[in-house]
Amino acid sequence: MARSCPFGACDGSGILVDEAARTASFCRCRGQVVATARARGLSAVIPRKYRGVSFDRPPITTIRDGIVARVRAYVRDLDARLDAGEGLWLYGPVGTGKTSLAMLVSSAALDAGRSVAIYSLPRLLAEIRTTFDDDSPGTYTDLLDRLASVDLLHIDDVGAEKTSAWVLEQLYALINTRYEDERAVIITTNLERDDLAEQINERTVSRLEEMCEVLPVTGADLRRQTFGLAEPEPADVSPARWDVA
């Protein structure tokens, strides 16, 4: 499928051609064209489970209105937020709709022609590790460059596993590169801020705090409700640090 220019200025190639003057110049969308090209080979597909997610139906309609309104506002101003390198940090108990909200944003970015990479943190770390295998088809530097170049990096389940200090240094390098280049990140996690810092280190969390609007997604486990399962004792996810009206 041919890519269209988001500004309606060129043919989607990122090049403006003036046939009368026999000149060519870069279009405003050129940066997006380059980022999309460099993102080839990364995971940029919305998982089947989330392809029908919408603001207008469950599970999104069952999430706190204030949180959904913040995410809706982000999607409404998507290009400006991505261009400014502003992301989202969605945290709360298991099953409260964090991933669905994040997938809404990633889907909107893909629909807008922006380059997106979508990973769970365990899968991303595994991909980083494999670049150092003798038979790896790509290098770590190449993977880092591609992950650092996409308009939106979506990382799900941050803090879901413990890993080596060495791999966490590579994660920090990626987040820090995106921080310095003002590239947006959206993350989901079941952990509160200090617990997350214990899992992926303080430096990485500090960078993410500066890059992201932090939204607590609290409430009942929507998956348990779907299957009629009894609710466990509620987790203590206090909104005191990042309360949302």
UniProtKB/TrEMBL annotation:
Recorded hits in InterPro entries, A to Z, give: IstB_ATP-bd, P-loop_NTPase
User: Which residues belong to any copy of the IstB-like ATP-binding domain?
Assistant: 85-226
Q: Which GO terms describe its biological process?
A: DNA replication
**Pfam families annotated for this entry?**
IstB_IS21
Gene3D superfamilies associated with the record: P-loop containing nucleotide triphosphate hydrolases
GO MF assignments: ATP binding
Give the protein name, as stated in the record.
AAA family ATPase
Source species of the chain: Baekduia soli
